[in-house]
Amino acid sequence: VGESLTPEIAMRFAGAFGTWLCDNVENAEPYVVIGRDGRAGGESTYTAVISGLLATGCRVSRAGVAMTPTIGFLADAKRADAAVVITASHNPAEWNGIKLLLRDRGALVETDGRVDVEGVSVEAAAPNADLAAEIIERFQSKIIRYVPQVEAQESTVEDDELDPHCLRVKLRLEAILQVDDWGGFVGGRVSKVVIDAVNASGAAIDHAFFDNEPIQLVALADSTSGVFPHTPEPTAENLSGEGGLCDAVPGLKADVGFAQDPDGDRLAIVDETGRYIGEEYTLALCAVSILEARKAAGESFDDVVLCANLSTSRMIDDIAASYGARVVRTAVGEANVVEAMKRLKREGKTVLLGGEGNGGVIWPEVTYVRDSLGSMALVLSLMAREGKTVSELVAGIPSYAIVKRKQPLAKKTDAQPAIERIAAAYASERVDTQDGVRVDFDDKKAWVHVRASNTEPILRLIAEAEDEATANDILDDVAKLVGG
Mind telling me the catalytic residues? Predict the structure, then answer.
């Protein structure tokens, strides 16, 4: 912020997006919901984006500080055309960014202001690669049409963004658990939860979600100051400091600890002993929760699908197979996972869940955005239904070792020859080339994924096996194929 991201750039990007909306949606005055992750200093970017949208003729509803999934759900609930979130996700305080969400059908319907939480059509999601490229091209080409002042819109304040999201999660949980009171069901078995919201967008909605429920919430870093108490990415290193989440959970005799990133789309979990279990387990536990609920209801698993990217642990495959479901793999990136989920749904498949191994879970019954609130609720409901601690639940899931390496690239195109050599060398194995190359060694329950980073001049090499030594051996062999 203040260098590559300035108010002028933010307003110009918003203007390009607003112009694109005017050219691509049915509404003459596109309706956009906007929020921010709460990080200190973020209001300057937030107001610049609002100005750019209003100046191009968009109607803007300001939700203020709110999680990315909350903004996504609100866009669906209000039947907006799009949403914008001012966030740098898990990045440190000096960063900020502009995230776009689009709806498939944005026909604006005037309402009396109330939200039909149960009847929401879930659509809002990050744009796919083609749409993203089209919007970025508008920005780079400076294709912006500002409207005369008499045609510029006024923004409105959205002050009910928390409760609809909370209510939707609870209603969906009650439906899959077949109970009348989710809070009472869970509260009889889970008594205390600790959440680290890093003084950002999750703080308010966490309190709203547990308010009047028989589950005690102990909130760490729950102010809306936007000043992070530690590096905000929810990793073991950042949560293990003195007085941090890993200390607090056993010290307070809590059942579980949850850590959110600043915009609330990722969730990490700490078990009752204070052990950081790793973000890969967030998707795994949520998958068990939703599949077990379907099994308990006696529903079929024919055509039941879960989606995950190519770099996500094979725990999700083992879990799905144990219920008779299957996993569809996608290129890395939330937008790619969502695109596959929507495509499979159109094909008649029952798509229960999607996500990535970074703690991002997409529950399409609530929103097509990774959602820490829905993830917490699914994990708590699993603990309550099974009557087990987090450590006991984790012990029941096949575990693997993931090893990650990086290799410098002079330029991104240098990756392709190495990727082709790897694909050829392992042609007898199961090979997937939709995003770099992934090779599955089914006989030893292992895989390796090699792809060029989208954000750094490096080649990413990731391997998973039943033990770290095997994963390293695979990476050693692959590194030889990569070459210098």
Answer: 89
Q: What is the pLDDT of residues 264-310, one digit of tens each?
A: 999 999 999 999 998 999 999 999 999 999 999 999 999 999 999 99
Q: Do 364 and 275 touch, CB atoms closer than 8 A? A: no
**How does pLDDT run across 336-348, given as a tens digit for each residue?**
999 999 999 999 9
Token pair recorded at residue 105: 């059908």
The 10 Å Cβ neighbour count of residue 171 is: 14
3-class secondary-structure state, position 369: coil
What does the alpha-carbon distance between residue 354 and residue 363 come to, in Å, rounded to a whole number? 7
What span, in angstroms and rounded, lies between the C-alpha atoms of 90 and 98? 13
Residue type at position 314: R
453: which residues sit within 8 A by CB, 6+ positions away?
Answer: 406, 459, 460
Q: In what order do the strands lie in the sheet with 437-441?
A: 401-408, 458-465, 446-452, 437-441, 430-432
Alpha helices in 25-140 (DSSP H): 43-55, 68-77, 129-140
Closest-CA residue to 124 (of 352, 335, 378): 335
To the nearest 10°, the Cα dihedral for 53, 167, 304, 341? 10
Buried b / exposed e across 385-424, counting CB within 10 Å, b at 16+?
A: beeebbeebbeebeebbbbebebebeeeeebeebbebbbe
Alpha carbon distance 376, 362 (integer Å):
12
